[in-house]
Amino acid sequence: MTNPTTRTHYAICPLCEATCGLAITTRGREVTDIRGDAEDVFSHGYICPKAYALKELDADPDRLRTPMIRRGDEWQAATWDDAFAEIDRRLPPLREQYGRDAVAVYLGNPNVHDLALQLYNSVPVRMLRTRNIYSASTLDQMPKQVAAGYMFGTMLSIPIPDVDNTDYLLILGANPLVSNGSLMTAPDMRGRLRALKARGGTFVVVDPRRTRTAAEASEHHFIRPGTDALFLFALVHTLFAENLAQPGRLAEHLNGMATIAELAQDFAPETVAATCGIPAATIRRLARELAGAPRAAVYGRIGTCTQEFGTLASWLVDVLNALTGNLDREGGVMFPLAPAGQRNASGTPGRGKGMRPSQSASRVRGLPHVFGELPTATLADEILTPGAGQVRALLTIAGNPLLSAPNAARLAEAFGQLDFMVSLDGYLNETTRYAHVILPPPTPLERSHYDLAFTQLAVRNAARYAPAVFPRDPAQLDEWTILLRLAGIIAGQGSHADLDALDDMVAMQTAEQAVQSPAAPLAGNDPQEVLAAVAPRRGPERLLDILLRAGPYGDGFGARPNGLTLATLEATPHGIDLGPLQPRIPAVLRTPSGQVELAPAPIVADVPRLRASMQRTRREFVLIGRRDLRSNNSWMHNLPALVKGPDPCTLLLHPTDADRLGLADGARARITSAVGSVEAPVQVTDTIMPGVVSLPHGWGHGQADTRMAVAAAHAGANVNRLVSDAEVEPLSGNAIQNAVPVTVAAAE
User: Fold this and answer.
1) Nearest Cα to 706, choosing from 626, 634, 651, 657?
2) CATH top-level class of 1-59
3) Strand partners, 746
4) Rg of the Cα trace of the chain?
5) Assigned fold of 162-340+594-609
6) With 80 as the cut, is the pLDDT of residue 294 above it?
7) What is the domain partition of the chain in residue ranges?
8) pLDDT in tens, 692-734
9) 619-746 maps to which CATH number?
10) Helices in 121-185 by DSSP H: which ranges?
11) 10 Å Cβ neighbour count for 255?
């Protein structure tokens, strides 16, 4: 018997937004080592602890490898044909009897970390023609997308801090030393921020907790959760009051500056200081420093999004960047130019349809339909409330909303009443235990990877493609094939639809979009010729090749012979550096006016609500979430490498609060909100602001009918049993998971 061959494969980590390049050593079908790829053009050898867990994820004995069908309370392994036959038997009759809106779809966070899911999940979703589309976006980032849509014209026109060149960085509600950037793809943020300080720069963190990022900062200021918009408006007020609002070259591209000046009058630092907990003198000093820095950037993330004023806070971040002249400039915040799939790099430069207020709403509560989605916070309403359009079936794609969505207990009740549920997922977890059919995907090491989403949010332009490390098990199906088989069933073609024909349809649509715009590099080309040029590729690689070749760096199918193609990337395993971010205004804009809309009417109309919030009585305790470097999604808790060590699911409590409540370090506390209670061990620490407590998200494992043994042994508390689904941020529909009023007491 010959010894297995040892090989090194170059891959891209798909576990978080940092997209670090990996060098993976294998012997046969076994991973023997995972290191950072020192030659990767973007991450330069950096990795975090999550990357090595890819080995455990690939070999996890709890990971499903065959489809599962639930018969009553019993799960049975099934063939793929049997699984799809069961779906074909049960799903179409429900749609026929109750209508297309009777089927809902939930898209989880891993969809944006997976090339096949990004390119193909829309196929069955479009064929369903249901208005009941939900995703993780309304749990963590929709306010930023709404603000970007109104200001710049598309939902991913999000200005990214040029962190490698800035002199002054103001961070709110973000912990990039743990996240490596969120809506800011930036591996090795510790190294980048230390380099900022080493070159004489400053970075300031405003956060209710002294995070790992705050501990490295030039200075940190506690802020009361949920008051970021007040603090930001006070900075804006100071800029106008002290004649520091100087947008420079941007002035001719800004619409609404006078309106901003008028709105800011009511938010003087002295007016907001008592509410947000930051002294007026400090606010004024920070505004002056921001305006006076040669190059500066303001960055806000999940803590600014998951609150009742999430859209206002997200909007004000970029209002500040614009007013100080730091929007679209080196060292400020800039718009990446991704190689493929970026809406603000297609169509007519400098002008577009922009974002308009939603003209439709959810059936039960009238919540906004934004970017084709309804708020996940109202999914339980749509299932539990009888009447025309009631949701009776659910398709979940790579998501675990019972650990990520608000009022988890009520959502579990709703899932238990569904007539039929299908989950594309690798685990029998807290959500999929309610499914009737589970369709498992390959492991991340069995599929190719290209980051379509995160190249649009990266601190430097680059293109990288990684083929699968291991061949797919012949008994397994590719994700895109699973999605096409679902689409065939929905289209009425049965469980044995012609997948090649469906894939050709998807490819033709992609080719048609590539040639339809008069400003596109392929304008006027025959889509059939485009498809012929990428033959014999199939699946995600065919679509990716079209997008790359039609993109801003692409070869234009011969028009630019030295341009980018998938073949070029396949021959360049460490990626291609496409250079630093460059100014893109006005070409990047897709607003009807062709200008940056500083004062969009729907956002301006929400300002009085913010103003009124300063009159409220302060709560004794408010709850915030947090993230751990070893954790990103709930399924990671089944990997020993990521749960070893001290229990990360603790309740952070300030010493003065602990003394008053009689709670010592390690004692168990009961945390109660308007919708539920959980228990967690106490961690007494002065890193949390008095009156604020913190639990991490994604925990709450251990149900008897799941199959995640490691996670069950590290169950933790589900923070979303405390978050209400009764209220959402009004402009975006985002769940309000920050500044949740709670009481804290010793557990009985």
Assistant:
1) 634
2) alpha beta
3) 669
4) 25
5) Dimethylsulfoxide Reductase; domain 2 (3.40.228)
6) yes
7) 1-59, 68-140+355-439, 162-340+594-609, 619-746
8) 999 999 999 988 899 999 999 999 999 999 999 999 999 999 9
9) 2.40.40.20
10) 122-128, 137-140, 142-152, 176-179
11) 16
